[in-house]
Input
Amino acid sequence: MLKNNIKGKNNMETTSCINPNDVKIKIPTLVGLKKNQETTIVNVNGVEFGGSKVVIVAGPCAVESQEQLFETARSVEFNGANILRGGAFKPRSSPYSFQGLEEEGLKLLSQIRKETGLAVVTEAMDTRQIELVAGYADMIQIGSRNMQNFPLLKEAGMCGKPVLLKRGMMATIEEFLNAAEYVLHHGNDQVVLCERGIRSFETSTRNTLDLSAVPMLKNVTHLPVIVDPSHGTGVRWMVPAMAKAAVAVGADGLIMEVHYNPEEALCDGEQSLSLDEFENLMRELPKIANAVGRQI
Amino acid sequence: MLKNNIKGKNNMETTSCINPNDVKIKIPTLVGLKKNQETTIVNVNGVEFGGSKVVIVAGPCAVESQEQLFETARSVEFNGANILRGGAFKPRSSPYSFQGLEEEGLKLLSQIRKETGLAVVTEAMDTRQIELVAGYADMIQIGSRNMQNFPLLKEAGMCGKPVLLKRGMMATIEEFLNAAEYVLHHGNDQVVLCERGIRSFETSTRNTLDLSAVPMLKNVTHLPVIVDPSHGTGVRWMVPAMAKAAVAVGADGLIMEVHYNPEEALCDGEQSLSLDEFENLMRELPKIANAVGRQI
Amino acid sequence: MLKNNIKGKNNMETTSCINPNDVKIKIPTLVGLKKNQETTIVNVNGVEFGGSKVVIVAGPCAVESQEQLFETARSVEFNGANILRGGAFKPRSSPYSFQGLEEEGLKLLSQIRKETGLAVVTEAMDTRQIELVAGYADMIQIGSRNMQNFPLLKEAGMCGKPVLLKRGMMATIEEFLNAAEYVLHHGNDQVVLCERGIRSFETSTRNTLDLSAVPMLKNVTHLPVIVDPSHGTGVRWMVPAMAKAAVAVGADGLIMEVHYNPEEALCDGEQSLSLDEFENLMRELPKIANAVGRQI
Amino acid sequence: MLKNNIKGKNNMETTSCINPNDVKIKIPTLVGLKKNQETTIVNVNGVEFGGSKVVIVAGPCAVESQEQLFETARSVEFNGANILRGGAFKPRSSPYSFQGLEEEGLKLLSQIRKETGLAVVTEAMDTRQIELVAGYADMIQIGSRNMQNFPLLKEAGMCGKPVLLKRGMMATIEEFLNAAEYVLHHGNDQVVLCERGIRSFETSTRNTLDLSAVPMLKNVTHLPVIVDPSHGTGVRWMVPAMAKAAVAVGADGLIMEVHYNPEEALCDGEQSLSLDEFENLMRELPKIANAVGRQI
Output
């Protein structure tokens, strides 16, 4: 069933799903929202994406050391985060940049999960890593640069763990939905979509966070949608404002980079919140959530 | 003083203003935020942009007829709008599209202002129109396509009325600030900046609303910043969600297209709220405003 | 006839012209290529755009002084340029940059035309300048930032001189054609289209020169199409390679910035060829022109 | 040596190579052009990229059948192509599109290589495929969507075959160079860079072919640079004009899609040349090559 389909052209199987607002996107079958369908609940070790609670995913860009990870994890847990993020395999533009602690990093994530009770999401970049990563993590992240890494998407469809799929920085909404369709088509409907900024001509921010992607996606798919204001801006002090906007626009969750010492981070320090900044933000966010009928 | 400066190269006069967050933008002198400076209050016939109240500007894309304008204006006023928008001179991509009622439209705007008490903002596209438009309107709009129409910016600087300056659809933040600098340099500091969507590769929306422009601008300039979710999305049903996000992110106001019969609009009907949709949105927005410490 | 048409929506009058290659662009009536129609010859004081000769337009970004203009003009004329460019009114991002010599610049252009025999093209930015500029110049340039300055396009349609219309940096091919349609609709079919680079995410060049615009435009319109590799790259040493590519792709002409002392230019020196560089390029270009069946 | 380097931040090892034109790109060490260095010759089974000959790579988007591949290959070989392209593993946006013949396709490529003498380039999408693909092909293609698939780049560095690296559709020149650096850093300096169009706002073409990337890259790297006008435009009738421009601008080769029956192609038929169209183009290209001092 999952074997390659050899078909003629024009065989894009588009959905019979509802699209009450008549968007000009071809919506693939499995990800498409059906009549009267609710948002799919994606359950990550007990944490539910897609319900009335806005899920908070926080943690460092990369796992760098036991101290860095554990201090950061304890703090974000104390301040209300639901899931811990942290990269063990890092996709870096330059081969000379820190590439991650690999399995050592996965082990650290696993240890602190036991201590804090936080579920863990971490990235897999290679089809050969999926099984290893799935053995340690509660949720597999497919990063922006791999959104159209189709063999990886197929493996993610067969890995048995929920998937966090980040939008490619150059991907249209239609391409994003089709990437998710690969995962569902290979047997896994536990997929959370993440808007994380697209590339535009503007250079004062690292990316342009496309918050309109949230209502657009929620109009056409039953999958939960979250927002990454850290990569979305690349600028630490902008993260709180954009996080609030993301909750107001209807996101089912947020994923944010937090570091116990951003100035010394090996990766993305300039967009990581300090522990205090995260704490302050977590005091503000529930007000916005309540204003749109949700909780944090 | 306002005569052309003939100077050598590298004479961009950048500001000595504060920029606590170390953004890599060259900020022009007059628009730059100075130490301890508050947001400038732009007063449009008694309506204040830049204070704790979020200003609501609403009305049709174009003034089409007395009935269309008056019914729409009465309804938005009743539901809490502070300022009426409506174009008498319309910048249309095609010469065969409706170009606006011109002075007749200005007269209608003036009449309904008297009846409703709403202040009026309308666009001027030509240096030769500025005086005429300023004679009828309370605020002159410079549209996206004219953001770098420098003679028009100079005239707007000398027109004696507050200016609503919309960001060009492919203008960087730095270019946007420099466009505003033209207006201030020619004598007018009553300028409101408006993010209205930038052009990206994404085609499911008309533009990509760059909400990160709001915190970015408010970090570097003392001018108020508002958001146009109608042009920013080009999609009617997305306007409420993006309006909420804009308030959450810290906008000083919203400008939205509202039409008493969007299906029959001569211009931009697909992005105009109906009267009922506007009414519903105006019931939701105060909750978000309160959640960020403001009022509507 | 030229009065604003007040019509209902959906009244874009698209062409019945041929479009043998089935491009998905709505082509406006007057600019659209008709069956068996040849490229329109645009005659600028005897220099013909649209024939078998590739027209060379060269000169400084801005007219800065008699010496600068005259030395540059004499040199480009000697090396084979057909038309002299040079701005008297300059659209500058910052109000503190050199804004041009205004009428004094027009007079200098007029003087050197008499001496060299070169036709002159220069920019008008304001409806109020059109008559003045048309009194001195052989061809009126509408710059990128004014491509959708519709009142200016209407005046250009009525000015009695050929028009050089530059593509906006954010303009689609369809918008570009509609901008030209404004000029034709107001009575002037002597319009040359100029691709000058669009804005993309790439930052190593000032713009991204879209050479595919040339065959695309020539497939759907009868207007001549030229290329500006100076603004298209913003990088002096890239101009010769891109100029060759433009001729190979089928452009009807080139417009290039040349300065007798680029390092001291008041405007765009980093993209201006020196006199020697222009001379060298003019020795190379005829080979490419011949290879595609044309002459320089 | 090839093990991950765990280093602190700010350790981008930039080159000491020459950059006579002072481009603001950080150029990685191994790909950077050194003083007096010539273009690296990349030898693909006797065909040399980077010399005075412009290399022609042609063939179908995907290997579909023996008949389709063999007829197309014989024809492009007869008309002067040097290398045969054809995908056995296809990265398709939708899981329901034709995904390629996999190893069966590789075998067909291998058979027709024997018959025609053409070298073969084909894509690998998965680290687990590299060894298989390298066993059949003379050159491994890394596609646009995998330009930042770092594990794949590392494997390509160790595969023992030359690599054709396509620019990501939203990759900056700097990111492109860093992707190549991964391959060189892992032991393989036989890398050809391919500009294949970037994503912009323009929708009349599939991508925007950035020909300025050719002189930009050749200014900073010793690697050969080729152009793909098929993906670069997505429009069959535009391919010849853009191919000519690519040769004029200095490309070291072209890669083009050719199909014996484009209307029936399972993939990218709308951008594939027919056999006749390719034949006609191959008669035109040598003239352009000669005009810039090269041969085909």
